[in-house]
Amino acid sequence: MSGLWNALMAPGRAMHRRAERMKEQQQQFDTALKNLDLDRIVEGYEPRLTQKSLNSADWKTPWPTVELIEHERARIAQYLQRHWNKAGFPERPVFLVRAGMEKVWAKLQGRIHQSVFGRLELPPFFDLSRDPNGLILFEMTRHDTDQYGNEEWIGVKSRWIYGRKPPHFGDPLAYRKS
Question: Which stretch of DSSP H or E encloses residue 151?
Fold first, then answer.
C-alpha cells in the first residue's frame, strides 16, 4: 500500500522540488543582479577596435571589416563573462530564470556595443539601431531571386549580395580568431 501511496504522491513532490529550485534560483539571480555594477562594467571596457583599423580594411566587401567587428564582439563577450561569473548567476537555470538572465545579458552587451561601435564610422554593411538591446547587427537584407531563379539575400543599404543565406554574426563566446 505504501508503494501505491508513494507513486500517487510522486508528481506532487516533484512539483514542490521544482518550485523550490525555481525560488532558490530566482533569489540567486536577484542577488547576482545586485552584484553586477552595470555602469562600472560598461565604463571599464577598453576597446581595441579603432577607426584607424576599420579604415585600413577594404570597405568594398563586408568580410574584412566583419573579421574586425567579430573579434571586438568576442572581446566584449569574454569581458562580460568574467563579470557575469563573478556576480554569481545560476549555472543551470530553470526556464523563467534563464529568460531573465538572457535579457540582462543582451542589454549589457548592447550597452557596450553602443559605447564601442557607436563612436565609430561603420561600413554600410552594419547596423546599430535595429536591435532593441543595441547590439551591432548586419544591415537589413531583402530576399530576392537572381535571373536563374536562385534565391539570394541583398543588403538594403549596401546592395551587397550576401548569397543564399542572410548574413549574421556567430556566437561571440565561441569565436576563435583565425
Answer: strand 151-155
Residue type, 97: V
pTM, entire model: 0.85
How far apart (Å, rounded) are the C-alpha atoms in residues 26 and 89?
10
Q: Nearest Cα to 157, choosing from 172, 137, 171? A: 137
125 closest CA partner among 59, 72, 71: 59
Residue (of 147, 144, 171, 149) closest to 160 by Cα position: 144
pLDDT at site 44: 96
Quote the CA–CA distance of 24 and 166 in Å, as a whole number: 41
Measure CA 123 to chain center: 21
- To the nearest 10 degrees (0 to 180), the angle between helices 95-117 and 63-87 is 130
94-to-10, 89, 98, 106, 107 alpha-carbon distances in Å: 20, 12, 6, 18, 20
Query: What are the Cα distances from residue 9, in Å, to 5, 13, 118?
Result: 6, 6, 57
82 close to 88: Cβ distance less than 8 angstroms: no
Judged against a pLDDT cut of 70, whether residue 161 lies above it is answered with: yes
